[in-house]
C-alpha cells in the first residue's frame, strides 16, 4: 500500500494508557479524530456522534471518556460507546456506532492516520 499520504499524529508513548486524545489531521482548527489507548491497543474514531449529524463529542480538549475511563461519551446528550467496537450501548443513538479510523504504528513508534480515511488530507 502507498504510504505517501498517511499523516503522522503523534508518538505512541504520547498516548497515555486509559486516556483519549483528539487530533486535527486536516488542520481545520478543531479535532476531527480521536484515539483511545488501552494497554497496547489503540482505538481510533471520527469525532462525530451518530446521534446528531456528526456532532463533535468532547466537552473539552481530549475529553472523550467517562469518569472511570470505561466508555467513550458524547457530551452533547450523554450517549455512551463501547471503546473497542464504537457501538452505542447507552443513550439516544443506541445500536448505532462511531466511524472507525484506520491508524498504524510504525516501527519507530510514530502513530499514523492511514490513507483513505475521510480525515486524511487530500
Ligand atoms: S449528539 Fe451525541 S449524544 Fe446527541
TrEMBL record:
Classification via SUPFAM superfamilies: ISP domain
InterPro entries the UniProt entry points to: Rieske_2Fe-2S, Rieske_2Fe-2S_sf
UniProtKB keywords: 2Fe-2S, Iron, Iron-sulfur, Metal-binding
GO molecular function: 2 iron, 2 sulfur cluster binding; metal ion binding
Keyword Cell membrane attached: no
Residue span, Rieske domain: 7-111
Superkingdom, natural source: Bacteria
UniProt entry tagged with the keyword Metal-binding: yes
Protein name according to UniProt: Rieske domain-containing protein
Naturally occurring in which organism (per UniProt): Ralstonia holmesii
